[in-house]
Amino acid sequence: MSVIVERAGFLTSVQDLGRTGFREFGVSSGGALDPFGLRVANLLVGNDEGAAGLEITLGGLQLRFEDERVVAWCGGGDFDVRIGSRVLPAGHAGSVSAGEKLKIGAPKAGCRSWLSISGGIYVEPVLGSRSTDLRAGFGGFEGRSLRDGDVLPLGMWPGSPTPATGISSWTAPHDWVSPAKPKPILRFIRGVDWNRFDASTLQRLTSEAFALSPDSDRMGVRLEGPELKRADASDMISEAVAPGTIQVPPSGKPILLLGDCQTIGGYPKMAHVITVDLGVAAQLRAGDHVRFSEVSLADAHRLLLEREREFERFRVGINLQRS
Q1: All domains of the chain, ordered by start, with CATH?
Q2: 22-45 in b/e burial notation, b at 16+ Cβ within 10 A?
Q3: Is the full-model pTM beyond 0.85?
């Protein structure tokens, strides 16, 4: 069965958890910019956590379903999501009947959300992933963002009991499903080129706020604010980069790399935003201000392991709700 895209919105694309094992060939990992949010939404609807869903930027999406499904979404700060006339809050599962419509309006905070549909978006995998690589033009639905009138194939779904109201009362933790913050602080560990910057520049990174430039996309966000000039201006050899890397070009205006980033880069790698904060970074939009705070590598590992343990408890709780 399928779901019909009546309005595609500003930028909507098919994404899963991304491509692994191909970065050595220059293929970016891609996938949902908040993979953890997509994992949570998938569990809420009964999917495998790596199933493909939709990444919606700034809302404007309207879907019509050909058969009964269960949907859930995570992201943003306050998206207006409705199934017919019923409000579907973030982190709750909702049943959709055949012919019914789901609408996602513009958010009041944040900019992206991830929608999971029971059965998953069943487009053909490319290099082991159903994610759309928008720059390279492959994967997802015809290698592009969605357009009005597109028809997306859905995977098989055997059906499961749903609450009488059609909206589940149980949900996921608030920070998981609504990661947008009014005053975001991104935690980071030092990058390999940390010592190429003098003490005063390093202090500016953690003591001053940066504004998000309009010249930003899924590849990375450019930050306006205090210039981060390096003391060591010697040439550098291009080296591996990854989502979360903070590079500093000659302009001194840092770039925070996101999921569609290149695999190598020649700018100094000043710092790296920790994995558990990438979902917050994915919600930044033009004009937002963000600050940075340093943590140790041990703390970064501890925070990730704690979240994964909580996620496993959440998985057990979801299974109990369905039993």
Answers
A1: 2-178 (no CATH), 185-302 (2.40.100.10)
A2: bbeeebbbbbbbbbbbbbbbbbbb
A3: yes
